[in-house]
Amino acid sequence: MTFNTLGLSEPILKAINKKGYTEPSPIQCKAIPPILEGMDVLASAQTGTGKTAGFTLPVLQLLSQEQHLRQRPVRALVLTPTRELAAQVYSNVKEYSEFLDLRSAVIFGGVNQKPQVAQLRQGVDILVATPGRLLDLCNQGFLSLSKVSVFVLDEADRMLDMGFLRDIERVIKMMPAKRQNLMFSATFSQDIKKLAHGILHKPVQVDATPENSTVDAINQKVYRVASGKKTDLIIKLISDGDWKQVLVFTRTKHGANKLCKNMISAGITAAAIHGNKSQAARTKALAGFKSGTIRVLVATDIAARGLDIPLLPHVINFELPNISEDYVHRIGRTGRAGASGEAISLVSADETTYLRDIEKLVGLKIPQEILEGYEPDPNASTQPKKQGGGRNQSQKRNSSSKQGTSNQKPKRSNDRTRTSRR
Question: What is the model's pTM?
Fold first, then answer.
């Protein structure tokens, strides 16, 4: 199958061709036709498989076929959980609509709202937004959602995980009841399916890959190591391997800052990116990482789904996530668009339970290795450490039905506040 056979218009095919794409990915093949037919869609696809284009291309075509209104009210809304993901989706919208008479904009917190308001006043057909800034501008009277005909909820499971359920409900009440709804995500829990039941009308469900699977092109490995030796080990791996571009995940913002400082002391250029960083600092760090002036980007999970870095070769879990699904999203930053990649996890004794849950989720026994001089502590407890207000898997599952309130995941609610309400 080619993009030409999916029913896309000539201006969109021209934009696709300009980007050098020739064949649609599985999720694009399955999602684009029903969206073009005006149907609600519930789509599951792992990260790096082209799901953003899976909804962007058909939505742009649907909007281009409608009669333009003089004031150009928002007719399509894409809601995303993080600033980085919003910026990434907006970039795709701009590229694919290059030859269409459509206007687009992106709004998120952490930056001055005045330029965003100015752009909205000029008229916007398709808007990409994070929930907090969207609601802020709506409440201030700068934005109306009364003409939205297509609503896209991107990374829906991440939305719930970050406690955005109530904001999603508020946004839905501001839109017309009659509209097309699309939900895209890498994973689908029972809570997500419950949310979908309340938003979607007779949806077509498409699955490009098995739920919670990891990309085959990613070489996964675990290094068993004592907790206190992790910093020395990660510096050794990066230095000895002469790795030029490494994305490292930590569980906390404090941990990210500390590791970044130790990297710099060891002569490795590094920057941290998390919810306490200003948007300007996050943008600068990401730009440096993409350009190669920064070798290591240390991030918390808030960045796991918003980073689109072509051909990223290495992802390292300095600490395993205590929510297994986050492992899928973290390592999904590498091995994108058919490229190969390596995902390494440094696992101490107290993370044994997390590793077992992750292997159960992805259906894979991840190869383990021990490096001489960095052996794990045989006397260390295998009980998970309590840090950052985190909870274990069963606690998370038991409370996930409590509407995603702000006290559901304390360590992430801070990220969320910084993400979209500043």
Answer: 0.66
